[in-house]
Amino acid sequence: MELWSMIIRTILIYFIITLIMRLMGKREIGKLSVLDLVISVMIAEIAVIVIEDIQRPLWEGIVPMIILLIIQVGTALMTMNNRKLRLLFDGKPSVIIAKGKIDRDIMKKQRYNLDDLLLQLRENQITSVADVEFAILETSGKLSVIPKEGRFAQESDKDSEGSETPDVNVEKSSVTPYSKGREEIIPRGFRYEILPIPLIMDGKVQDENLIKIEKTRFWLKNVLQEQGVTNFKDVFLCTIDHKGKLFVDIVTRKRTT
């Protein structure tokens, strides 16, 4: 008897939660704000309690769910035409990269690290920070990326020159190094991932990546000095791509008065 009661409760709660989620609107499904996440977790916890405790009346679970539904729908209606309330409940987007410059202070405020940034850039088919004009961290945690003008146009021009399209299944490519002065940036015949390799992150040199490209800290220091950087700690992010192109983002220090 208890088994059948649990089965009936489970089926009933399933349809009730499905109805509640539909009434909350597609916003709930498409984007989880802090409020959405809290309500979803609370509904799930209430459902588990009601299903497991068959001695508990069903209305003790259904009523709190309806109250949460009213809170969600009421909040959505109030914030629809009131930006201040909307910012209060959902927060506001944060500009992580503006005009190709990483905003370190915003990243710290949002507790958003470089690994998160590089991951989400790759998810947006961006392999280098140097190709980004603006990157905006939305309230849902999604990173919206606006590439620099001409990036995709240049890529399409290269594809239309008559050269064969590279095999998308090839994970590594042979790199033809170019020279800067008398020294080659990338050793001849060297092969590595197409994605840029971080050489400095948060002011710390990634020695294992320098070993991969057969370079030393002395070489890296000389390259940075050509760009006016004298200390590794002054570099927030430094990467090198498969063409040997360096991207350097400098830490902006606040002036003390």
UniProtKB/TrEMBL annotation:
It is a multi-pass membrane protein. Gene3D superfamilies: bsu07140 like domains (3.30.240.20). It is found in: Cell membrane. Keywords: Cell membrane, Membrane, Transmembrane, Transmembrane helix. Its main location: membrane. Residues 81-240 form the YetF C-terminal domain. The chain crosses the membrane at residues 6-25, 32-51, 57-78. Residues 152-161 have a biased composition (Basic and acidic residues). Pfam families: DUF421. Coiled coil: none annotated. Residues 152-176 are annotated as: Disordered. Belongs to the UPF0702 family. This is YetF domain-containing protein. The lineage of its organism: Bacteria, Bacillati, Bacillota, Bacilli, Bacillales.
